[in-house]
Amino acid sequence: MSPxxxxxxESPAPTSSSxxxxxxxxxxxxxxxxxxxxxxxxxNMIQSYYRxxxxxxxxxxxxxxxxxxxxxxxxxxxxxGSDAMAGLRCTACLICENECPPKCxxxxxxxxxxxxxxxxxxVFDIDVSVCMNCGICVEVCPFDSIYMDGEYELSxxxxxxxxxxxxxxxxxxTDYHAQLRPLEASEVATRREAEAxxxxxAQAAKAAKANLDKQxxxxxxxxxxxxxx
Amino acid sequence: MSLSPHTASxxxxxxxxxxxLLHVSLGPQHPSTHGVFRMNVxxxxxxxxxxxxxxxxxxxxxxxxxxxxxxxxxMPFTDRxxxxxxxxxxxxxxxxxxxxxxxxxxxxAEYIRIITAELTRLINHTAFVGFFLGDMGAWGSALMxxxxxxxxxxxxxxxxxxxxxxxxxxxxxxxRNDLPDGWAARASVLVNEFPRFLDELExxxxxxxxxxxxxxxxxxxxxxxxxxxxxTGPMLRAAGVAYDIRKAEPYGIYDRxxxxxxxxxxxxxxxxxxxxxxxxRESLSILRQALDQLPEGAYxxxxxxxxxxxxxxxxxxxxxxxxxxxxxFYLISDGSAQPFRYRxxxxxxxxxxxxxxxxxxxxxxxxxxILGSVDIVLGEVDR
Lengths: 229, 383
Hints:
The complex is a heterodimer.
Chain A: H1 7-10, H2 32-47, E1 75-79, H3 95-99, E2 105-111, E3 117-127, H4 136-140, E4 146-148, E5 164-165, H5 167-170, E6 171-173, H6 174-180, H7 182-228
Helix pairs in contact in A: 6-7
Chain B: H1 8-12, E1 22-26, E2 29-30, E3 35-36, E4 38-44, E5 47-54, H2 62-66, H3 75-79, H4 86-101, H5 107-136, H6 141-161, E6 170-171, E7 174-175, H7 183-205, H8 209-215, H9 223-228, H10 234-238, H11 245-248, H12 269-293, E8 314-322, E9 325-333, E10 339-345, H13 347-352, H14 355-359, H15 364-374, H16 378-382
Antiparallel strand pairs in B: 1-4, 2-3, 4-5, 6-7, 8-9, 9-10
Helix pairs in contact in B: 4-5, 5-6, 5-12, 5-15, 6-7, 7-12
């Protein structure tokens, strides 16, 4: 059987810049290479007593390494105002539940006695023992209601209920978000304000237009009998 | 010598009495097997007579799960394929979807992708050197030094993506977020300081007589066998075949950068180690160029869809030169939000197929070394 060569391997054109074969290690006396390696180890050992960048151990719980501002762990829900349950931005639209890769979010929509949607979650559970911290729920949420937390000391002796976070446990104020991720929070706040202003303006415009239409109708109605006569 | 990888074993071995062989089950829980990998080795004295790999202990049903979730939802799962280098996995998958849906990527995003991918190569190859020395019995120094440098790059990744290893960073049409303030400057500092560490690492290992005695002329196979076996990446280049997808079929914007492909002469374990050390230098040169040229602009295509993403009906295969070899994603779309078929071509698994051919006739201690030189991650082998 002859070797099957890929065409791109035969033609040297795209890979002509390849270097020459590997250089041989330059050793003369047997044992020199070993000693050179030991010198590196010794240098490292001595430097580990005084060089700042080689003293990398942080004595956790007493000391803590700073957390990156971008660090993400588990999601939380944001609420506006002071009442956590009434102010939740979540509208129970189920987008995050559907997009969640390991399916760790469970949402039940709240309805009134007539079965009409109240656009808020009755149940919003996240099983953090399943959650894989990917942050896709944050990206897909159209209502700016879910964000990633940076909290990491979450160990619990109760591995079932202790790791199933309900909406009371998940709710965090806007201030908490602003403190955790100032950049993201301020961006969201300005965007939401602009949207609210736009909405108000649109409502005002709609009302004004309705008013105009009404006036026009009344005028037409007033003119109609006159024309009939 | 037979050229077919699957007949090489039976042709070169003399007849042996089955009763005189010692059967050893190497793994699955053993530090030298790089995860949960098992080898059933038959020994005649110390000499390997046959080697049967057993894998699947880390099977997570990734491909089937991906066919039941949306395209975006598979992105975090790709982090967990080759968990040493999540960002190249992300890139390969994003590229496949972009090919499928015909999405353009802005220039800045391409640069960010190259920078993260080459930093990932630094992580992979330094970690490889550490683990390889560990396999040889030099457990400690080399791995600790390698991980000290790896940690600096992981800090950069954490600031950029939010997680050290499970980055979930690439998106269809760009990246998830822009570089934080000062990130590029910090990356430049790291890239400029890295050669000093490489000098240190080379001083530590390259001249070492024990290393040379253990690795030279161990596990070499002819080029033709490697090519027929589908071996890619540093394994193939160590045997002297100039094949690197970054040059052979440039993806992203690799054609804009000047870099060389180091080639080995023999293809033994020593060459495989040296190839990685030389590739680190070339990666640094790509990184320097990319960080110098990094343009301003959008990090994601403005019309990229995050919610309700449905590519048109069709199929696509995209491949990249991941640090371990050719990583490819094959996708078939039926026009819905989930892929109809989702298939991965993992370099680790394919590079492992010639393991028995490399080990036959050598000592048991060399088996561990050869497995280490293949550079596998079981998350990718078993999927």
